[in-house]
């Protein structure tokens, strides 16, 4: 493989880690919905790139966007999201394949036989998932299939095809990309109620049939002051106990406008409660917030007089909700390099990461799937370093997909990582941290690492 260089800009304050930096050690992703039309805005783009390690297409991958005319596909928005993710070392969460809303006019108002409609649906799933095979790690295959009473929504697909449309969609998605994780996603299911009970029964039935479903997404479009973290945790756990991955997929917490300090503090407590619920469930793989800034949120257009639902305000300034999310990951083991007493603090006596000899290294898989993995590497050096070089080997056939906080190259199985301009100087006892994504297979936990040609102790 020819040498390739990857990297992205550092966050503004090195002493104040980003959400993705504190989420990564917990083994969870932290994601955001991305508005394709805003990627040309430098502030928006920078936040999306540096704060999150997973991105979801807000609208660019929905049926009306990708197949506006039958059999005629527009991949521009989806391709931009995938390119953006690969440039910034991020996972991609595909949203959504089969949904009663945002269908193109030809489909929504067209008249088709049952056989033809099933073929249209499975062809669409096959084409879209196949297009992004290996590039999208998770898909919302079926979205919002239930009414509030737990009965099936009377969508076009259900009315003509019955509940079998769900299983058929999942089977088509699995055939198109055997390695992608396949989810069913819905709202008002975050706690146990009639709707989530209906979803639970469906998932049990799909599993009994051998339908290839990997996970359940819980949207969590919530209201300030009406968040029950314990109930959310218990509900996530019962789905995880089925052997499925669960995820918070569309988190926002809206309030009656105008916002004030009291509402913002309550919102922060509510965000923390949702994050803590996910982090307490081993099967909860991550959290996606539905939008970055209040100025870009869908909420005011749908809920009259309500808004301020996102972690950043109208001017892209972090709100207390942002701090609450960050604190939740830190408390769950994400660590904060600036906190005395944290295991990653070089001044903490008895630090378990103190080096043996000149350096020690941790090489940890933070996310794994059949076709790849995401890896976090931390190297602690016993002496000051300028312009560092770290090397390690990947298993045969495993290649770099992208990386961050360093410049990467690969020759055969050997990977070399050198510093960026902003992180080349490391004091004695300091740490070097970077991450990367593989393709063609997964890296291995505990892989030996060298710093400047010297073997580092595993630590």
**Stretches where pLDDT falls below 50 for ≥5 residues?**
1-15, 337-357
For the sheet with most strands, the description reads: 8 strands, parallel, barrel
Share of β-strand residues: 25-35%
Question: Fraction of residues in helices?
Answer: 25-40%
Straight-line N-to-C gap: 30 Å
- Structural class, from helix and strand content? alpha/beta
Number of β-strand runs: 22
Strand order of the largest sheet: 1-2-3-4-5-6-8-9
Instruction: Round the mean pLDDT to the nearest integer and report it.
Output: 90
Radius of gyration: 22 Å
Number of helices: 13
Net shape: globular
Describe, in plain words, how this protein is organized in 3D.
This protein has 459 residues and is of the alpha/beta class. Helices cover 30% and strands 26% of the residues. The chain has helices at residues 19-23, 42-51, 63-66, 76-87, 105-108, 114-131, 156-161, 164-176, 194-209, 229-240, 261-279, 299-302, 320-334; strands at residues 29-34, 54-57, 91-99, 138-143, 181-186, 215-218, 221-223, 245-256, 284-289, 306-307, 359-369, 372-381, 385-386, 389-393, 399-404, 407-411, 414-418, 425-426, 431-439, 450-451, 454-455, 457-458. The strands form 4 sheets. An 8-stranded parallel barrel has the order 1-2-3-4-5-6-8-9, surrounded by 5 helices. Helix 11 (261-279) runs parallel beside helix 13. The longest helix has 19 residues, at 261-279. It is globular. The two termini are 30 Å apart.
């Amino acid at each position: 493989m020819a040498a390739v260089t990857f990297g992205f800009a550092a966050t503004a304050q090195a002493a104040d880690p980003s959400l993705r930096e504190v989420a990564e050690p917990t083994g969870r992703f932290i994601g955001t919905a991305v508005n394709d039309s805003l990627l040309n805005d430098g502030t928006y783009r920078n936040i999306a790139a540096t704060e999150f390690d997973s991105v979801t297409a807000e609208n660019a991958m929905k049926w009306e966007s990708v197949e506006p005319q039958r059999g005629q596909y527009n991949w521009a928005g989806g391709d931009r999201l995938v390119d953006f993710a690969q440039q910034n070392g991020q996972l991609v969460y595909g949203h959504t394949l089969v949904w009663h809303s945002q269908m193109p006019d030809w489909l929504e108002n067209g008249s088709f036989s049952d056989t033809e409609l099933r073929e249209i649906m499975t062809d669409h799933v096959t084409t879209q998932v196949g297009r992004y095979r290996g590039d999208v790690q998770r898909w919302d295959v079926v979205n919002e299939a239930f009414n509030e009473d737990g009965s099936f929504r009377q969508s076009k697909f259900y009315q003509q095809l019955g509940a079998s449309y769900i299983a058929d969609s999942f089977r088509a998605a699995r055939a198109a990309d055997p390695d992608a994780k396949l989810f069913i996603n819905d709202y008002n299911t975050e706690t146990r109620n009639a709707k989530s009970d209906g979803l639970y029964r469906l998932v049990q039935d799909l599993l009994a049939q051998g339908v290839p479903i990997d996970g359940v997404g819980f949207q969590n479009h919530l209201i300030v002051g009406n968040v029950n973290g314990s109930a959310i945790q218990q509900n996530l756990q019962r789905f995880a106990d089925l052997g499925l991955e669960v995820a918070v997929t569309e988190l926002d917490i809206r309030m009656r406008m105008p916002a004030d300090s009291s509402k913002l503090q309550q919102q922060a407590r509510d965000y923390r409660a949702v994050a803590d619920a996910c982090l307490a469930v081993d099967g909860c793989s991550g959290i996606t917030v539905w939008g970055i800034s209040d100025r870009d949120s869908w909420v005011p257009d749908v809920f009259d007089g309500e808004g301020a639902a996102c972690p950043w305000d109208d001017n892209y300034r972090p709100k207390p909700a942002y701090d609450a999310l960050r604190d939740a990951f830190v408390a769950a083991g994400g660590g904060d390099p600036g906190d005395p007493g944290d295991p990653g603090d070089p001044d903490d006596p008895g630090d378990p990461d103190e080096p043996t000899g000149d350096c020690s290294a941790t090489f940890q898989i933070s996310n794994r799937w059949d076709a790849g993995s995401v890896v976090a590497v931390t190297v602690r050096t016993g002496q000051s370093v300028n312009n560092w070089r770290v090397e390690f080997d990947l298993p045969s056939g495993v290649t770099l997909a992208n990386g961050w906080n360093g410049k990467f190259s690969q020759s055969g199985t050997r990977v070399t990582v050198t510093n960026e301009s902003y992180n080349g100087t490391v004091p004695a006892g300091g740490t070097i941290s970077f991450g990367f994504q593989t393709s063609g297979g997964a890296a291995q936990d505990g892989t030996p690492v060298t710093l400047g040609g010297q073997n580092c102790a595993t630590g």
